């Protein structure tokens, strides 16, 4: 009987400890933000993401989760969501977004929290020499960013330059890794920023 009471006591302590640990998903739902400036200045850039095969509500939810995580102290991502059709969407960044956050966003869209879709997601941008992960070999090049279907690491994004040089960008460890063959060959984006600039859209921040 004494042994059973000890076991029950240990279980009770473990349950209490677990209940005191903040749940990781809270960061996805906390929509607190710093105050936005009265006027926002648009920044010309060519960064764009095209999504096929998901629905508007799921994409918007994923973008809100991403912004809940990255816009706590300052606005790292204000995303313009444009619907081309019921299952084709374009993301643009009228106020700019740094390359690292852009990579994180593409990764997050593949692996959103508690959202399940099977979408084709790709991003395009021109790299700069001072971008994180970028080397002299792939700077000042137009590139495609994506996650290949066989990815099991969940903390990286893949990059293919317009001349079909492939790289793996590891967030936690590894940094930039050159691939002998790109995971996917470069595909020209179907739309560019100017194509969707004047279409009806919603800003996610």
Summarize the helices and strands and which ones pair or pack.
Layout: H1 2-20, H2 26-29, E1 48-52, H3 56-70, E2 79-85, E3 88-92, H4 99-110, E4 120-126, E5 142-146, E6 156-161, E7 166-170, E8 175-179, H5 193-196, E9 202-204
Antiparallel strand pairs: 1-3, 1-4, 2-3, 2-9, 4-5, 5-6, 6-7, 7-8
Q: What would your notes on this structure say?
A:
The chain has one domain (about 45-205). It has 5 helices and 9 strands, in the order H-H-E-H-E-E-H-E-E-E-E-E-H-E. It has helices spanning about 1-20, 25-30, 55-70, 100-110, 195; strands spanning about 50, 80-85, 90, 120-125, 140-145, 155-160, 165-170, 175-180, 200-205. The chain has a 9-stranded antiparallel beta sheet with strand order 8-7-6-5-4-1-3-2-9.
Search tags:
globular, Lipoprotein, 9-stranded antiparallel β-sheet, 5 helices, alpha+beta, 205 residues, 9 strands
Number of domains: 1
> What is the number of beta strands?
9
The helix-strand sequence is HHEHEEHEEEEEHE
Category by helix and strand content: alpha+beta
Number of helices: 5
- Which overall shape is indicated by the principal axes computed on the Cα atoms? globular
In round numbers, the mean pLDDT is 86
Q: Which consecutive residue ranges, at least 5 long each, have pLDDT under 50?
A: 3-24
Work out the strand percent. Answer: 15-25%
> What is Rg?
20 Å
Distance between the termini: 57 Å
User: How is the biggest beta sheet arranged?
Assistant: 9 strands, antiparallel
Widest beta sheet: strand line-up: 8-7-6-5-4-1-3-2-9
* Amount of helix: 25-40%
